[in-house]
Design goal:
The protein is built from four helices and 43 strands. The strands form twelve sheets. Strands 17, 18, 19, 20 and 21 form a five-stranded antiparallel sheet that branches. Strands 34-43-42-36-38 form a five-stranded mixed sheet, with no helix packed on it. It is mainly beta. It is globular, with a radius of gyration of 34 Å. Helix 3 packs antiparallel against helix 4.
Length: 604
């Protein structure tokens, strides 16, 4: 088995050919060891019908039964929902209208009701469609929101750290990214457009500088010299919905981009598929993250073969259960190694050797015609990572002709050997933050599988928060997929504030008020009572008034017990989050498996 190794900034001759007898023998021995040490991946394919020409596919549980479902966006302006029936099988599609020409979709809980919703990006209308889920696999009618010109892709995340899910789209026609900030109820505030370089597409998100804030990365097409001089742009999030660009990464002919931890250092790396060069060539490039928002300057090109023509939609995961990250992507491949003969649409799997820069030669698995999008998920919940491709070409482009690929190809992982270990660990970076009252603190929470085989979703929660504080995760659950996955934790605090309530009228004190009546009452008695009875009546009036005053001061009156009040006395204040150091516990739960880690928060 051949290995594909680092060849910075080259396009042709990317397989390392070592001269010399000793080197040849050494490579042969390494190949034998490699074959013995790694399990060859194996998948069983089943195709499921969708609506017309699916462009994209995601896996999620849309009806809350604990079984993964599939969703595709289709050329006939619909979303197809294929509900899982268990064991990696899926039912017939149910369709829901979207905007015109949807190219991508993303899944999140936009209205915080615990039910997954869908967003699609619609290129022909320059809109995003929001479909709020009903919890049974159906969706409410779409609501369309305007974005930039010719939106190509979208991602979701909490970009301003307010605890609500936001949307970002890459717009090739206006050279911009549109940001739609969520209100937490399924609605969004008016969009904000930020510059993104020429013709941005293939948008992805991750935490590239490990500060707990969601960042963006995208491909810029074409520049002035055509597709060959395209670049990759990284935008680091500031945590308030704004971004700062980094120096662009040069890339020959990138087609698609994804973020993932390729070398198991808990930093999000970048993986790009490309097609270009001066001779027919195609491949995958890995950019290893330095953990500070920059990436290693070398561009390790992993494959080059005249047989491969259109690699796209890369995903990162452990597909053979050895704990090392692998890469898979959709592709075209000819039977002839020189580019001739019949052509198939395939999913290519590159098994990692460790370190993120050395991979085995690709294993190819034939899928439906027109495969252009790929996802990885444990679709049958057996602990192995499966694959699914959206096969979206309207007419056959392979030789010999085959029916149009209006389908999803599900590849259930049947790789031999024992099932991977089903457990995970949690880690937080940084371990502590210092904020002023009213500010937010960000952390990056990593969920790492033990033994590389844990592929189930992990739901995150926090406890031990101080008064007036709240925590949110973006996303609220992650699926390791055999390798580490991360979520951005935001802890929000509140500042002290005073507020004014409704004014109440000034009130009198009971004793002075009733004492004023004493001389008038005595004078009235003296004027109207005969002299023989005057002293008795005067004494009775005095005693009656004294008794009345006493009852008021003991609470018998309706006004005198209230102290004199100012117009502000009915207002109030909130003390905000108390100053102090707090330990917040972060808990990850997947079925019966649960683990925790702690972060420190100093509020000053």
């Amino acid at each position: 088995m051949s290995d594909y190794r680092i060849q910075p900034n080259r396009c042709a001759g990317m397989i390392v050919n070592t001269k010399g007898l000793a080197a040849a023998i050494l490579l042969a021995l390494l190949a034998v060891v490699s074959v013995q040490a790694q399990s060859q991946p194996s998948f069983e394919r089943t195709d499921y019908p969708t609506n017309l020409s699916p462009h994209w596919v995601v896996a999620a549980d849309f009806n809350g039964d604990g079984i993964p479902d599939l969703a595709t966006v289709n050329q006939d302006n619909t979303v197809s929902i294929l509900l899982g029936t268990g064991a990696g099988n899926f039912g017939l599609p149910a369709s829901f209208p979207t905007g015109a020409n949807p190219l991508r979709l993303a899944v999140a809980d936009f209205n915080r009701d615990g039910i997954l919703d869908i967003a699609t990006v619609n290129q022909s209308e320059n809109t995003v469609s929001i479909l709020l889920g009903n919890g049974d696999g159906s969706f409410k009618p779409k609501v369309d929101l305007p974005v930039g010109v010719l939106p190509e892709s979208l991602v979701v995340g909490d970009f301003n750290r307010d605890g609500n899910i936001d949307i970002a789209t890459a717009n090739t026609g206006s050279d911009s990214i549109s940001l739609l900030f969520g209100n937490g109820d399924g609605t969004f505030r008016g969009r904000v457009d930020i510059p993104a370089g020429p013709k941005p597409f293939s948008l992805t998100t991750g935490d590239f500088n490990h500060d707990g804030v969601a960042d963006l990365a995208l491909v810029n097409c074409c520049d002035n010299a055509g597709f060959l001089l395209s670049t990759i742009t990284v935008l680091l999030g500031n945590g308030n919905g704004t971004f700062r660009p980094q120096a662009p990464l040069t890339q020959t002919g990138p087609i698609a981009l994804v973020a993932g931890d390729v070398n198991s250092d808990h930093f999000d790396d970048l993986v790009a598929t490309f097609r270009g060069c001066h001779t027919p060539c195609a491949g995958v490039t890995v950019y290893i993250s330095n953990g500070d928002g920059t990436f290693q300057s070398s561009q390790p090109t992993l494959i080059n073969d005249l047989q491969y023509g259109l690699p796209r939609s890369p995903v990162v995961g452990d597909f053979n259960g050895d704990g090392i990250a692998d890469i898979a992507f959709t592709n075209t491949k000819t039977k002839d190694q020189f580019g001739g003969g019949p052509t198939d649409w395939v999913v290519s799997v590159l098994l990692g050797k460790g370190g993120g820069t050395v991979f085995a030669a690709p294993f190819d698995f034939i899928v439906g015609d027109g495969a252009q999008a790929l996802i990885s998920s444990d679709l049958n919940k057996d602990g192995r990572l499966d694959l699914a491709s959206a096969n979206g070409l309207m007419t056959s482009t392979v030789n010999p002709p085959r029916p149009a690929g209006n389908s999803v190809s599900v590849l259930l992982n049947s790789t031999g050997g024992p099932l991977p270990q089903s457990d995970f660990t949690l880690a937080a970076t940084p371990s502590s933050r210092i904020v002023n009252r009213g500010q937010s603190a960000g952390y990056s929470i990593s969920v790492s599988p033990l033994g590389g085989g844990f592929t189930a979703a992990v739901t995150l929660a926090c406890s031990g928060l101080p008064a007036g504080a709240a925590c949110t995760f973006s996303p609220s659950s992650v699926t390791p997929g055999g390798i580490a996955a991360s979520s951005a934790l935001t802890i929000s605090t509140t500042a002290p504030s005073a507020f004014m309530g409704p004014a109440r009228p000034l009130q009198h004190s009971g004793v002075p008020f009733y004492a004023l009546w004493l001389p008038f009452a005595i004078g009235f008695v003296g004027f109207t009572t005969p002299s023989s009875q005057r002293h008795k009546m005067t004494l009775a009036v005095v005693l009656a008034l004294v008794a009345l005053i006493g009852s008021v001061n003991c609470g018998g009156g309706s006004h005198a017990s209230s102290p004199t009040a100012s117009p502000l006395s009915s207002g109030g204040s909130t003390s905000g989050t108390p100053v102090g150091t707090y330990t917040v516990t972060v808990t990850g739960t997947s079925g019966s498996v649960q683990h925790s880690t702690a972060v420190s928060l100093l509020v000053q």
